[in-house]
Specification:
The complex is a heterodimer of chains A (about 300) and B (about 325). With about 300 residues, chain A is an all-alpha fold. Chain A has helices at about 1-5, 15-30, 30-55, 85-125, 125-140, 145-150, 160-165, 170-185, 190-195, 200-210, 215-235, 250-255, 265-290. By secondary structure, chain B is an all-alpha fold. Chain B contains 14 helices and no strands. The longest helix of chain B has about 35 residues, at about 90-125. Chain B has helices at about 1-30, 35-40, 45-55, 60-75, 90-125, 130-140, 145-160, 175-210, 215-220, 225-235, 240-245, 250-260, 270-275, 280-310. Helices cover about 75% and strands about 0% of the residues of chain B. Classes of the chains: A mainly alpha (about 300), B mainly alpha (about 325).
Chain lengths: ~300, ~325
Amino acid sequence: MSATSGRLDTLPARPAPRRAAAGALRRFCRHPLSLLGGGLLLLMVLACIFGPMLLPFDDLRIDILHRFAPPFSGAHVLGTDQLGRDMLARLLMAGRISLAVGFAAMALSMVFGILVGLAAGFYGGVAGAVLMRFVDAVLCFPSIFLLLALSAFIEPDVFSIILLIASTAWMEVARIVEAQIRALRARDFAVAAEALGATDARIMLRELLPNAVAPIVVSATLNVAHAILAESYISYLGYGIQPPTPSWGNMLDNAQSYLTSAPWLALLPGGAIALAVICCNFLGDGLRDALDPRARAR
Amino acid sequence: MGAYLLRRLLQALGLLLLVSVIGFTILHLAPGGPLSQFAAGGTMTQADLDRIAHQLGLDRPLPVQYLDWLWRMLLGDWGRSYRDQQPVLAVIGSHLGATLELMLTSTLIAMLLGSWIGVLGAIRRYSLFDTLATVGAMVALSIPTFWFGLVVIYIFSVELEWLPSGNRYTVGDGSLLNQLHHLIAPSLVLALVSTALWSRYMRASMLDVINQDFIRTARSKGLPERRILFHHTIRNALLPMITVAGLQLPTLLSGALVTETVFTWPGMGRLFLDSIGYRDYPVVMGLLMFTAVLVLLGSLLADLLYGVADPRLRLE
């Protein structure tokens, strides 16, 4: 069992984890789509970071003479919008925001979800039950309804949107971690650590959590996808990132009114969202197969 | 069965109480609050605002307000909309039909289409169709619903001019045909995510059943494949789908809100969005509670139906 092999320090040259890692890598590489997803995602991140520096156009420069230039027709590779701003520059700058929101909201919701899941799974009892019932109750609200209701709290800016999305995304993680920890806690190595007098914090963080890492990594990847989608939904509905700061979601906000005359205004940012989310989902799928072969969805 | 039902009902009620506390706290702790829309006009003095707050009972401590609201809600008085003083239940009721129509149609589409894709993918596992369906479902789950709606409008309303781009019916034309015509695009858009999920679960469920002994028995008895598929495999594979249907309700409601916005569909989602915009808290609160009740009822009903459909799971 890989769960126990890393714990016995007397064993010579612990071979099992490395073999497990190699196996995971091999299984991951068997999925051409998840490799492609990971590669494309990396490419998108790099393009959004460095792309705007290489472009001759600024994403906020208004050029009213060249508004509604269609893609592939002139100096502007992907055309211009209703104010004559370069679409490619805007897409890349918006990508910075949307991807940053996606990853930051993921990180935040993972930390919170893991903490709640750890506490509920480890201590159990009344406190654990109350925590998990709270999770159940929050999950009763459809996610967009909850996001919009919470949006009344905030002045929308990048940071508060990250908080908002994270605060609606931690429940699933908490559930996964709680179930894992509860199961792992009864295993021999955890009981042994407890018998050796290890502190609660040490058992949780050094013994239990590393063994639950596989489902956590998978759900983190899927969480990025969820967060990017959530940002686009609330920005599209007008409660997210506010213009002139571009995000993929708010670029779509008023594109609907130009659907007849300038469809690329709607098609391009939506395509960017779809691509990023698809990449995350494929990556998550590959990671699930690679890290957690037992839980594989056939 | 009776004891089990009672326990589940009590659990659901407890959860609902917790849901109402969370919802109430979220809305009433939000800065601005219901008074901000009166203050926004700029013509009212602080004394006026205080009087309104007193009239609406907003100057009492929060727990008192909550208990008062809870008690009235249990008696069927969900408060009145700040916007037009209509009772909240009546406002929700007048928008419920449009949403149910949309949700039921797309659920039907998702069930039929998703089951078909899932069954075919399972019996021809790893075939070209199965691979395409797997990738397709992943893509469908990744596309933002509103964007898919915009694409559908662009293709079918703007370019081809086959379908109307929004609303429930043409004003002045209330015929059934006209309503169905308006229903096609939004229900297809809403069905996308459910179809993808449904096909994945159906495929997994089929694969679970296909490898079981009684299927092998049926085959060795010499039953025709078609009979095995329809009378043995699919019938059993559909059982867990009852749970799936119940669990998809929150996703479906979220999708409905977005779809309704894109297609200017006069349903609960649009109502929720408008009420948030107007800070119409009684309606927002009512809708939050209403959707939570729907979600809980959905999962409860799914569990009970599962017991009815599958006698092996009946006790407990």
